[in-house]
């Protein structure tokens, strides 16, 4: 059975397509559908992943890792109990946990999955997620773009051309993707949004309001009390969620502080209108990001055919209502649980690959150009952005100096004028080339996951070298990149 995995910043989910061909979320050992993407190191041998790890985050932050997805494919390192871990190794622990409970639930070992990634993830980030899955014991059959998964969950793959807007409003990010769909091809037209706007910002506004009100009414400042602030944040998040279905709620926290006059309790009523007034700047920011994304693509709201909502914060009634009125001509898709829509879409794609559901051939479009750096330091693209993949491109290169027996091939991606290093390799020859004598065929192969493999062949000797991604082209550090361990030797609970 191939499952679908939504490896999220805040929460991760596993889903599968059942015997009745319905996509279903797999519950974890606690009976929960979402597993927090949090890793807690109990000691140097044992880690907790999920809800239990999240509840330790406050008490022992130095042993807890949150939001590792944001670090995928970077050279960030975590040092815990004196040992270094790459983001992929930490992600691998989360995949191990997901694999474990999904295997228990299905009664068979889960070994293969369709794993989702944001549409804007570049080659480094995609490679990072692939490594994390592999370390966690999962073979990735396909890396699927999250907005494409959301579209699959809504069955947006009938005939005809459609312009689809996916608004993924999560805990910490707001991802906007405009896609064009035509005969199996989901083409990302543009992506926008913010990595610094999400549900947590609404919680922060409410928490500030609570702190201010307590200061005014009781003369107590809770701001510098981390335990009180933790209780306030968890309670206001619940109140915010209540206000998506109720018109009014009460924030109650007994014994939040102790003064000479006795204990201080919080008991505050708040209405949805009041909440919406307090958080109006955040809503405005969200809507202006949607407008800016459409403007960049020179698309008017009237041209959008389908609007799909995902992410927990898309349940905010003011968000839903405003988006509905902005796109009153479009088909509006918000019935599927927005926390689950991406995982369910991944499961549907998995079942298509298994031949259990009718297959829709998915092709994606490369969001950046890929190429090499020439001797003058100029970027030479081999595959231009906008190319549909899977694809292969080959180009002949030569050497630029006499008496040369080696060339260094530096592989980069370019996006909006920024060059990002993907790696480099040395191509050595048995003999010495005169200037312009070498004939090296460099091929860039992009597989269905949007991941690049680079192969260089000396066309005279048929010697072949394959790029392994280590280090950075810029500065070319001598130090070896930390070698990732397949088995970290850690027990995951
Ligand atoms: P996600 O990153 O997609 O898991 O979304 C998590 C965010 O959605 C958190 O900030 C939650 O507080 C928020 N959220 C979940 N349910 C609701 C709801 N019913 N109303 C408003 N926000 C919600």
Describe the structure.
With 493 residues, the protein is of the alpha+beta class. The chain folds into three domains: 1-154 and 336-363, 2-Layer Sandwich (Nucleotidyltransferase, domain 5); 199-278, ATPase, substrate binding domain, subdomain 4 (Actin, Chain A, domain 4, Alpha-Beta Complex); 369-492, Sandwich (Substrate Binding Domain Of DNAk, Chain A, domain 1). The chain is built from ten helices and 29 strands. The chain has helices at 51-56, 87-106, 123-135, 146-153, 199-218, 226-242, 272-278, 280-296, 317-326, 341-353, and strands at residues 2-6, 11-17, 23-25, 35-36, 39-41, 46-49, 64-65, 78-80, 83-85, 112-117, 139-145, 162-169, 174-182, 185-194, 248-259, 262-271, 306-310, 331-333, 364-365, 369-373, 379-383, 388-389, 391-397, 404-415, 418-433, 440-446, 452-458, 463-466, 491-492. Strands 1, 2, 3, 4, 10 and 11 form a six-stranded mixed sheet that branches. The radius of gyration is 25 Å and the shape is globular.
